[in-house]
Write a structure and sequence with these properties.
Elements lengths: L1 H7 L3 H11 L10 H11 L3 H9 L4 H15 L5 H18 L1
Helix pairs in contact: 5-6
Length: 98
């Protein structure tokens, strides 16, 4: 749900509350296009695999770097090399999910 909150630019509390009250996370129209494939991959996982993803831990530095690159991408201040790095980190995460 943390990724959903980040992808939809909503607070984690808001995402959890919506999931509890409606039984559903925010709709696809709320997810930026660049994150839809990642969120869709999570949607296809069975409970056991989803729990494995939820319990997996990336190195704090790697997560911090990913967040920094996402922020630069949102602000349109990301360099070409940083965009490649962001894509690489996203693909690594996606590979971990699948």
């Amino acid at each position: 749900m943390i990724n959903t909150a980040q992808a939809t630019q909503r607070s984690l509390e808001e995402v959890i509350l919506r999931a509890i009250t409606t039984g559903n996370p925010p709709g696809w129209e709320d997810v930026p296009a660049e994150f839809q494939a990642d969120i869709a991959a999570l949607d296809r996982l069975n409970d056991e695999d989803l729990w494995q993803v939820a319990r997996s831990h990336k190195a704090a530095a790697e997560l911090d770097r990913y967040d920094e690159l996402l922020e630069r991408n949102r602000e349109h201040t990301i360099t070409a090399d940083e965009r490649l790095e962001l894509t690489d980190l996203r693909q690594q995460w996606h590979a971990d999910v699948i």
